[in-house]
Amino acid sequence: MLEIKDLHARCDATEILRGINLQVRAGEVHAIMGPNGSGKSTLAHVLAGREDYEVTQGEVLFNGTSLLDMEVEQRAAEGIFMAYQYPVEIPGVSNKYFLKAAMNSIRKHHKQPLIDTMDFLKVLKEKMQLLGMDKSMMERSVNEGFSGGEKKRNEILQMAMLQPKLAVLDETDSGLDIDALRIVADGVNTLRSPERAIIVVTHYQRLLDYIVPDYVHVLAEGRIVRSGDKTLALELEEKGYGFLEALSPSAAAAAV
Amino acid sequence: MIVTETNTYHDEHAKFCEGQSATAPIWLQELRERGLSQFHELGLPTTRDEEWRFTNIAPITTHPFAIADVGAFSESQIDQLVQQAELDEDFHQLVFVNGRFAKQWSRLHDLPANVIVESLAESIDHRPDTVEDRLLGNGDVELSAFVSLNTAFVDDGAYVSVPEGVSVDRPIHLIFLTVADTPSFCHPRNIVSLGKNSRATVIESYLGCEGARYFTNTVTKIEVGESAELSHHKLQHEQANALHVATTSVHQQTKSRFRSHYFSFGGDLTRNKLNCTLDGEGIECTLNGLYMPTGDQLMDCRTEIHHAKPNCNSFELYKGILDDRAKGVFNGKIHVYPDAQKTDAKQSNQTILLSDDAIIDTKPQLEIYADDVRCTHGATVGELDEQAIYYLRSRGIPADLARTMLIFAFANDVVQGVKLPAVRQHLESILLSERGLPNV
User: Could you give the number of structural domains in chain A?
Assistant: First the structure.
């Protein structure tokens, strides 16, 4: 589904990604871990299409098509969803209107009929219940005045409504207490399916107790320095990111 | 140039006096003469006047306007405009065409006893003494060339009077239409007077017919008695080539409440001055405004709130959305008199510029002569939030729809302050159609 080949990207003058290679197939859940500043969030943003980052080398194929040539909204329409670490507040636009506009924009892109309002509300209510969200959140402005946990739930709600092919969760666990974490993780788990891939970007292993990954990759200084199964996350938890230093490109260079 | 043009007004006035004024009561003739001489004394303002620094009224001074011909319109044109303006058939409705009351398009439902809703011309006939008082009672705050010019041509308009303790439940909708095939002006004069403990809702709508350039110079004088409550709306939908100058002067007494909702969409050059005097304790005054000029439109919003007595609250929110080469001016003055301790005044002006060529001049102006007060003001000028646009796009919403959604959200904030459903829906539909926000 997703093929990342030798991806280099920079923000301003700083090179952050220095040759990422990654393959994600439908049905898989990949966790990307790494210390602060390793490039985890940058990778997520580059996939979503944020313009602050400039790709200098490499390519990204999404179902065989070059992702980097697509506009942000086109990526979303093709089935890429990014759950943000810091969702934006949009005063004056109700959650309900926003979600319906998003769903119908994607349907229009695929030349599908627009969703019936009654059906929309029915599905919305269901998903909100699943995520333990109060009905009033429908009418409230997008993320405005939401607590950290409410914002994260709202991201997962959007994901549940839009049913993407590839979901990228950026530090979804940050700022969540354990109960909220469980609800959010349950929400994500109900979306696991053979047709869908999920990339979980996280600093801590904690989230991976609830969203169990098929693969874990460790990022350091803009490259994947180790890949493994879920036990790699546990190893990291135990030893800390310090043990990576031996693996990092700069440490290797220093050793030479 | 200005001298010649004031002469045009002078000539028009002479014609006007021969026609309308000859049969008018002496006091009214004198009032008009005084208006004219005051107008000459003051002269039309230029950009050298501080109050008019950002608004060049050349289109008003260089165009020879004449009194709108009363017969020069077709009924079907007016029908159409009235339909456009109409908000709700349950509302009382007075229609004025070229400044004159037009009975056939007006309708009054049952009114509570002693409530008067009629044309000023009728009032001048029926109750000259009260009208004279109310026309004459102009304080210094209203001394301006345009008010004087209006006085010089005072003739008709709306007269609304609600006696003590009476509540008029149905809103009173005043519709002012201009239909002219030659350059014309009109000078509607409205009087709204609420007695102690009374309540009313008034809406003023201004519309015009496509055709010759016209100039509307309207004056509305509002008296809100003790513990009375007035909700006032103004919907400015003038034609694209129209010049619109309006002066609304509000006098509030103890514990009264006044809410103003101003929406400006049309016109070429629009100047709206709203002047509130809080002349008692425990008064609440709320001013909301939204102006959305596009093309080469100029919209000038000027508000003055005079806190003359202690313990009053005023709240003001004016928002502007400017596109193309449009120009906006906001000047919000809050004057707290030495006596007016415990004044609580909040003012905010927020502008979004959608184009590099749009210009806003915003000037909050606080004059505080009391020491125990709370006054806040803020002015922001910005563009649409790029982060928010990105967020919407990343959910599949195309960039242009994302922008439209944000513009709508910004404006809707002011629209939601309108409590009257018919007016709110009217405004929402304008925002939706003007800005093309689809019903998703």
Answer: 1
